[in-house]
Amino acid sequence: MTCFDTAFTRCPLIAILRGVQPHEALDIGRVLVDTGFTIIEVPLNSPAPYQSIALLQDTFGDRILVGAGTVTSPDAVGEVASHGGRLVVMPHADLAVITEAKKRGMICTPGVATPTEGFAALHAGADALKLFPAEQLGTKALTAWKSVFPRSTRFIPVGGITPDNMQSYLAAGAAGFGLGSALYRAGNTAADVGRAADRFMKALS
Asked: What protein family is recorded (predicted)?
């Protein structure tokens, strides 16, 4: 199994496959793995998300970290775990969800939009903080937060991230990124995703 630190060090890009369907999950997952991605999340508001998570975990789980996004309740954490997912990504900073994920030994990256949420999430055991929505908060907020949070805090901007704006966030202190519609949107083929993934990988270097 790939741990979060290893996966994130190898490639600090989280592929968000919102809207992916089980019948296409493996083809899209394979092109992401081949491009060098090491973390994939399937948001729970996708069609049959637990089935896609199980397929991705069974096929690629020895090489990458697979989990769920848009996790909003402790019960959902249990469902993700029962289908093999090891990563919980949240749009918010509900401490009950974070606590449940950590109790199960899972990686948890809650969404935060204020320093108060961020510090509370870290205290509850968050492994990284999802800066969300990044397009609203911007690089100035990230720079300010970096000056007061523990140096080891990993900030992951999500929302509106493109190959063109990644470097500005990296300069402000981003540790990595969650990539949504600029990488994958419902209906995209594996070839579409491969081309987008390649652009993101090149922008990272």
From this structure: Belongs to the KHG/KDPG aldolase family.
